[in-house]
Structures are given as C-alpha cells and as structure tokens.
Amino acid sequence: MTKKSKYRKRKKDNSGLVAMGIGLILIGIALFIFWPRANTASGSTLSADEMSVVPAAVNYPAPQLALQNVNGTNESLSDFRQDVLLVNNWATWCPPCKAEMPTLEAYYEAHAAEGFMIVAIEAGEPKDSVSQFAQSYGLKFHVWADPQNASLSVFRNDNLPNSYVIDRTGTVRYAWTGAISRAMLEKYVTPLLTQSN
Asked: Do residues 103 and 30 share a domain?
C-alpha cells in the first residue's frame, strides 16, 4: 500500500466522523427549536410550582438539637412540640436559600395561627451576620445561628437548602433538599396542620 492510499483511507475515515458530528449537531438544534413549541401546543408546559422540589416522605424521631437564636436565647427543637415545625437549613451565601425565604415567610404568616412554626438554621455564619440577614428579609419566624454546622450533622445532609417537617408527635414526616415552592408547602404541610396528636 502506498503512502498516498494510506492518506486517502485516513481522510475518508475522518470525513465520516465529521459528517456524523454535523448530523448530531443538527438533530440537537432541531430538538432545541421544536421541542418546547410541541409542549406548548399540547398544553403540557410545566409551571414553576410543578418544577419545584417534591419532598421525600420519611418517618423517624426528630433529632435532639439546641442552639442560640439570633436574639441570644437558647432554644431546642423540642420547645416547639405543640407545633407542626419546618426546620430549614440554609446559608446567607446560598442563592436558592435566599430565594425561598420570602416563600417561607409568606407561608408562615398565613399558617402561624394554625400551629405552624419555622426554625431557620443558618449554617456557618456568626450570629450578628445571621441577625442582619433576618432583619433585612423581615423574617418573623425563629432564626438560629449554627456556626459549627450542628444541624447539618444531626440531619445528615450537607446540601443547602434542606428542610424537614416535624409533626406534633415529634416525628419527622417530610424531607426536602432544594428550594420549596408555596404550592409544595400547601400540598404537603397544610394537611398536617389539621391532624391532632
């Protein structure tokens, strides 16, 4: 086989790969352009609430956890046994954590009279920074500073934000990892508010 024929064979092999690559790119572009239109035409587009994180149903005793709130008072999860409690682990530097705070505050204000409480536990920052954040967002529920990340440790979840719903018997019923929408809170937490011990 001559040098020239080897070169032609190699060139032919490369041209097949190039053609395949161009074909895949064109298919990708077509899917990008036409797929959303097809979903919109059929009425099956997802709303922001439908794309929200759905909780995992769980069933285990709430962990023992006590920390200082931003006012300097020691509090424990067991202090809220009479309430349906949402524990929210978050951080001041976390964009989805900040994005869900107005949703949590609005849900809290709508359901506090029904025995609902939120304890928002900031992971890693000193109390003064956490207090400033809570004031700037107008948070009325309990906010704890957790500079040693004790809450992330007892809930065994380092991903932020994460949230846990504890019923009035002290049982963790739902676990979320990711931001929560108002629709998800209404769907999963509101029914627990009407249940007795």
From this structure: no
